[in-house]
Amino acid sequence: xxxxxxxxxxxxxxxxxxxxxxxxxxxxxxxxxxxxxxxxxxxxxxxxxxxxxxxxxxxxxxxxxxxxxxxxxxxxxxxxxxxxxxxxxxxxxxxxxxxxxxx
Length: 103
Prior knowledge:
The protein has a domain at 17-65 and 76-81 and 99-103.
């Protein structure tokens, strides 16, 4: 199951275990990404007011300065996504940066 990335003008199809496409997720400031994870609490926080607020904050953070994910100026182009794609930085399920199960 999937859904569309919640960022305006982003047509990326996102797995239901992810909040937004990877390019936009890495535009969210790290403290807010961490808050989403903390409030998610391995699924126990799903549907709570705290988790919903963290999700809204993440979406709002990206919407403040929307850069299309396909743009060469997109911050994720030269960040963790490229490092991961090149195999230098392997993300694991224990890493808070992993995109799965965050909403």
